[in-house]
Amino acid sequence: MRTIGIMNRVLKELFRDKRTLALMFIAPILIMLLMSVIFNTNSATDVTVGTVSVSHKLNKQMADIKHVTVKKYDTKSAAKKALDKESIDAIVKKNGSNYSLMYANTDSTKTATVKLAFKNALTATSISQLKSALKQSTKVTVKLQAQLQALQKQQAAATAKASGRVVAAKQAISTKATSTTTATKSTSQQSPKITNHYVYGDKDTGYFAKMLPILMGFFVFFFVFLISGMALLKERTTGTLDRLLATPVSRSSIVFGYMLSYGILAIIQTILIVVVTVWLLGIEVVGNMASVIVINLILALVALAFGILLSTFANSEFQMMQFIPLVIVPQIFFSGIIPLDSMAAWVKDISYIIPIKYAGDAVTDIIMRGTSIFDLGFDIGILLIFLVVLTFLNIVGLKRYRKV
Amino acid sequence: MGQAMIDLQHLAKKFGDQPVLKDINLTVNPGEIVGLIGPSGAGKSTVIKVTLGMEVASGGSAKVFNATMPNRELLGRIGYMAQTDALYDALSGRENLKFYGLMKGIARGDINQEVDYVAKVVDLTEDLNRRVSGYSGGMMRRLSLAIALMGKPDLLILDEPTVGIDPALRRQIWAELDRIRDEGRSILITTHVMDEAELCGRVALLLDGKVMAFDTPVALKQSYQVTTIEDVFLKAEGVD
Fold first, then answer.
1. Which residue range(s) make up the domain with A71?
2. CATH (domain of A109)
3. Are residues A110 and A234 in the same domain?
4. Would you call A19 an interface residue with chain B, using a CB distance cutoff of 8 Å?
5. End residue of a domain, out of A198, A217, A246
6. Do B82 and A2 touch (CB under 8 A)?
7. In A, which residues are within 8 Å of B86 by CB distance?
8. Are residues A310 and A371 in the same domain?
9. What is the SS3 assignment for A287?
10. pLDDT tens digits for chain A (404 residues)?
11. Do A27 and A150 share a domain, yes or no?
12. What Å distances lie between residue B113 and A25, A248, A272, A287, B103, CA to CA?
C-alpha cells in the first residue's frame, strides 16, 4: 500500500518533468539514428571458419591468412551446430565445384573478414592449380615436341612413301596439344560459383546491428541510473527523505516503490526503443520482443538499485554526475560493443562484473538468434544476483538516515 | 495517564568522537507544550533526531510513549515538521498532503477529510491545487506544518515551525497548538522567537549539549532574575 503510494508519487513527479522525460525518450532515438549512420564502417577482427569437404589446399590457404582460424567438420550439421553455438563464425562447404558459404552475420565485420579471406584463399588455390596445370601442359608439350622431333627424324630416315601417315600423326599431335591448352584454359575460366547464406539479416546488415542490442541496454541503464540517482539525491538534500522516514513507512517500501515506478518507466522506454529500431532503422528482431523487454526491465532495476546506492555517496547533483566517467563509461567499454575476444585476458575478466554485458549478451541472443528467454538462464541469473545484492544494500543503506 | 509522552534520561549522543549531546533530561507530559531553545549548534535538532529514532542514543535512554526509540510503528503517532520544508515541488499542495497522509498510515477514506481540515488550519484551502513550486516561502512553511498536523497525532515535534510566517497567521497557528494541547496531546517545539517561548508550558534551555534549565517561563525568569525569556537566554549564554 505504501509502496504503491510511493510509486504513484514518483511517477507523478517524473511525468511532470517534461525535460527529463524528453531526455529519456527522445535522446536515445536521436543517438541511435546518428550511430546507425556513423557506425556502418568495418574493421578487422578474429574469425573462425568451419569447413566441410573443402580441399586440403584451400583449408591451408585460409588458415594462413591473418585473423583466420580454420576448423574442419565432417558433416554440415556438425558445422551448423558449431555455428549456432558461436564457436565458429561461418561455414564453407564445397558442393561439387561450387562453394556455399553460411555466415552467422551477428557481426558484419566478421562476415566481411570471412568473405575476403575466402576469396583470397580461393584465388590463391586456383593460381597454384593453374601453375601445376601449366607445368603439366608444358611437360606434355615438351614430350610432344620430343615425339615430333623423333617423328621428324623418322621422317628423314624414311622415304616419301610413308609421308601421308606422318602428316596424320603430326595432326594428331597438334590436336592433342591444343586440347591440353583448352583444358588449361577451362580450369582458369571455370571459377567455382559461390553462394552466400546469412543466419541473421542479409548482406546489408551493418556494424550497427551488432551494437543495437547492447546500445538498447546501455540507454536503459544510463538514464535510469542517472535519473533515479538524482531523484533520491534530491529527496535527501531537500529533506523529504528525512520526513518520509519520520513516518512509519518501512525502508523496503521506499526502495520497492522506486523500483516499481522506474520499472514502469523502463518498460515504456524499452518499447519505444525497440519500436523505433525495428520500424525506423529496419533492424530485424528474430526472437520474441517481450523477452527483450523483460531483460531490459531487469537491467533497468539493476541500474536503479545502482543509482540509488551511488547517490548515497554523492552530496550534490554535480557529484552524482562525476559517477558517469567512473561508472557509466567503463560499462560501454566492456559491454561488448567493442569486441572482447581481441582483448587481453585480464581485461576480458573485468567484463564479468559489468551488468550491461549480461543484458547485452542476452538481448543479442534474442534479437539475432531468436533464442528463447528460458535458455538464457545464466545471463538472467547473474542480473538477478546483481539486483538482489544491490537492493539489499540499499535497504540496509537507508539505515544511515533512520535506525529502524 | 500520567506517563510522559517523551522521556529523555541522561541522553548522550556522539558523532564519531564529537559529543553533541552530553546529558539531556527532558520530559514532555500529555497536554503540554514544551519549548526547546538554545543557540544554533546546541544540539536541538539532534535531540529531535534521537527522539524520532533517526539516530540512536550513545548513552542514556530515549523513550516515546513509554517505548524505547527507535521504534518504527510509533512514528505513525508522531507529527513531525522539519527545519527544511521537505515538500515535493512538482506536486500540488493537496498531493503532498495526501502522499504524506498515506505514508503516515491514514486510511484512504479519511484522507480527503483530513486534508481539508489541516488546510483550513494553516489557511491554504484556496491554494491547495496549485503546484508547490509556485508557493511563497511562507506558504511552503504552512503546508509543511499542515503535513505534521495530519492524522491528529498524539505528539507533535515541530522544528522552527513559525519561521517566515506572518504575525496574524502565527497567532492562528498558536491558537491551533493550544487547542491541540487542550485535547491532551503534546507538542515539542524548537524556536528562535523568544516571545513564542513564553507561550510554552515549560521551556528547556539547551546549551553545549546539556539542558541548562528546564522550567515554566515564569520560574525561569525568576531564577535568572530577568524579565523576558530572551534575557534568560542571553544570561545563560554568558552574554551580558
1. 47-198
2. 3.40.1710
3. no
4. no
5. A198
6. no
7. 238-240, 242-243
8. yes
9. coil
10. 788 889 999 999 888 888 888 888 888 888 888 877 776 654 557 888 888 888 888 888 888 887 888 888 888 888 888 888 878 888 888 887 888 888 888 777 788 788 888 888 888 888 888 888 888 888 888 888 888 888 888 877 766 565 555 555 556 555 555 554 444 444 444 567 778 887 777 666 666 777 778 888 888 888 888 888 888 898 888 888 888 888 888 889 999 998 899 888 888 888 888 788 777 777 777 888 888 888 888 998 999 899 989 988 888 888 888 888 888 888 888 887 777 777 777 877 888 888 888 888 888 888 888 888 888 889 899 999 999 999 999 998 888 888 77
11. no
12. 39, 21, 41, 52, 16
Q: Give ∠ CA B38-B209-B67 in degrees, rounded to 5.
A: 100
Between helix A355-364 and helix A377-397 the angle, nearest 10°, is 150
Q: Which of A198, A215, A248 is the last residue of a domain?
A: A198
How far apart are the C-alpha atoms of A31 and A123, rounded to whole Å? Answer: 42
* Contacts with A1 from chain B: Cβ below 8 Å: 102
| Exposure string for B156-193, b = 16+ CB within 10 A, e = fewer | bbbbbbbeebeeebbebbeebbeebbeeebbbbbbbeb
Residues A182 and A112 in one domain: yes
Same domain for A104 and A244: no
Phi, psi of A118 (to 5 degrees): -65, -45
Place of cell 587481453: A344
Pairing of strands A68-73, B6-15: unpaired
C-alpha cell at A159: 622415304
A5 touches chain B (CB under 8 A): yes
Q: What count of Cα atoms within 13 Å lies in the side-chain half-sphere of residue A285?
A: 22
Task: List chain B residues with CB under 8 Å of A9.
Answer: 88, 91, 95, 99
Name the residue among B54, B82, B90 with its Cβ closest to that of A16.
Answer: B90
- Number of domains making up chain A: 2
Q: Kindly state whether A243 is in contact with chain B, defined as any CB-CB distance less than 8 angstroms.
A: yes
On whether both A241 and A377 belong to a single domain, the answer is: yes
Please report, as a single letter, which amino acid is at residue A47. V
Chain B positions in Cβ-Cβ contact with residue A12 (cut-off 8 Å): 90-91, 95
Contact flag B103-A404 (C-beta cutoff 8 Å): no
From chain B residues 72-111, the ones with a CB under 8 A of any chain A CB are 72-76, 78, 80, 82-88, 90-91, 95, 99-100, 102-105
Q: How far apart are CA B148 and CA A196, in angstroms?
A: 73
Model ipTM over 0.95: no
Q: A183 and A214: one domain? A: no
Interface check A381 vs B, CB under 8 A:
no
Q: Which domains does chain B have, with CATH numbers?
A: 6-237 (3.40.50.300)
For residues A219 and A342, state if they share a domain: yes
Amino acid in the structure at residue A399: K
